[in-house]
Structures are given as structure tokens and as C-alpha cells.
Design a protein that fits this description.
By secondary structure, the chain is mainly alpha-helical. It has twelve helices and no strands.
């Protein structure tokens, strides 16, 4: 009964009405959508505005996907517990809705502006990265971060070129492909950052701080969760 009470009432109903953790105001998601949808934020805003202003969401699929986004966003705003990742289920529906509205409006001035601004900003990242070299962690794999940024900027400049040739779909594809190549290339730097990820450094520090007779009385050890404590205990017994 204690488990069901904690699962159904405290963790489910409690988080929805008056959360004990991650409690945020109603407007929490709106400013975060500006960067969580990046670099397509302006494009989505323009296309959503056009859909409402021109009443162009006429197909059943468009109305259905628009309702999914609207109703789920309203529900997430009303729930007491709020985290950025709760927006993830909205992304595919928002993308399809805006993509369907984009058809036939590729040459709209506002659509082109909403693509030029992020493409221009991403295109300038690589040259400006040399001015902020001290911000890139030195343990990363040599020139890999610069290669990733170069691919990102290249995709952005290709997107701008396609925009000026009035090929909006190809422009979006170039920008998206550049972001994908950037992430794939930068991921090869992760092995050089392993000591900043996970529990290895914390475990080694805890082992150095422990005392044979009073390790359980250490404030550092007592602050660990039971699962991590069991992990440390098994290692120390070994």
C-alpha cells in the first residue's frame, strides 16, 4: 500500500496539483520554447501565425496535429511539475503541422527572413570560434570541435545560398544536415570528457575520503543515494 500510495498519489496526483519538486509557474515553458525549438523557432512562429491569420489549417490532419500541440501545451502549463524535457512529445506534431503549412508559402518574405536570421548566426559561429578559443575545453580532441563548427557553418552558408536561389526546402535541408554533421563530429570528442561524465570521478573521490572505521559517518557518503552507496560498498568490499 505504501508503494501504491507513493506512486499514484504522491508521484502522480501530487506532482500534478502541488509538486514537491520541479514546481514552476504557468508561463515556465514559453521562454524555454524559444531555444528548445532553435534554430527553427522563428520559422515555427511565422508559420503558426500564418495558419491562424489566414485560417489555412483546413485538412483534418492539420487540425488534429494543431489540437495535439495546443491541448498538450495547455495541460503541461497547468501541471505543477515542469521540466524542459516534458516538451519532447510536442516536437514531432509541431514539426509536421508547420511543415504542412509551409507548402505553398516557400517564397513568403517572413518565411525567408525567419530562415536567414538563424542561418546567418550559425554561419558566423566558425569564424568567431577562433576569438573564443579559451572557452573550448582543452581536454577535447584537438581540432574536432573546430571541425564540427566548420561543418555547421558550411551547412548554414549553403542554406543561405539556397535561400537566395529561392529554394526554401533545400535551404532547410542544408541547415538541418549541417547541424547533424556538427553533432556527429563533436560526439567523437566525448571520450576525452569521460571523467566529467557519470560517477567515476565521484567514486574515486569518495574512496580517497573514506576511513576504514567510520566511512558511513562521512557527510559525503551519507549524502549519496542508496543505489550509489551500494555501488561504492561492493567496490570497497572487493
Amino acid at each position: 500500500m505504501d508503494y501504491l500510495n507513493d506512486l499514484l498519489l504522491r508521484q502522480t496526483v501530487g506532482r500534478g496539483i502541488d509538486s514537491f519538486h520541479h514546481k514552476e509557474p504557468v508561463w515556465f515553458y514559453f521562454p524555454r520554447m524559444l531555444w528548445s525549438f532553435a534554430p527553427w523557432t522563428l520559422l515555427y512562429l511565422v508559420l503558426t501565425g500564418k495558419a491562424f491569420a489566414e485560417r489555412t489549417a483546413r485538412t483534418e490532419t492539420q487540425r488534429f496535429f494543431g489540437m495535439i500541440v495546443g491541448v498538450n501545451l495547455a495541460l503541461l502549463c497547468l501541471i505543477s511539475a515542469k521540466i524542459d524535457i516534458y516538451l519532447l512529445p510536442l516536437y514531432p506534431f509541431a514539426v509536421y503541422f508547420c511543415s504542412s503549412v509551409l507548402v505553398g508559402r516557400e517564397n513568403s518574405r517572413w518565411v525567408r527572413i525567419s530562415l536567414i536570421i538563424p542561418a546567418l548566426l550559425l554561419g558566423l559561429i566558425f569564424p568567431f570560434s577562433f576569438l573564443g578559443r579559451h572557452w573550448i575545453p582543452s581536454p577535447w580532441a584537438g581540432n574536432l570541435p573546430y571541425l564540427a563548427l566548420a561543418l555547421l557553418s558550411s551547412g548554414a552558408w549553403l542554406a543561405l545560398w539556397q535561400l537566395f536561389r529561392h529554394r526554401v526546402a533545400l535551404s532547410i535541408g542544408c541547415l538541418g544536415f549541417g547541424i547533424l554533421l556538427c553533432l556527429c563530429t563533436a560526439s567523437f570528442s566525448l571520450p576525452h570528457m569521460n571523467h566529467y561524465i557519470g560517477y567515476r570521478e565521484m567514486a574515486l573521490t569518495a574512496k580517497k575520503m573514506r576511513k576504514p572505521t567510520s566511512c558511513r559517518n562521512s557527510p559525503t557518503i551519507n549524502s549519496l543515494s542508496p543505489g550509489i552507496w551500494m555501488f561504492f560498498s561492493d567496490r570497497w568490499k572487493a
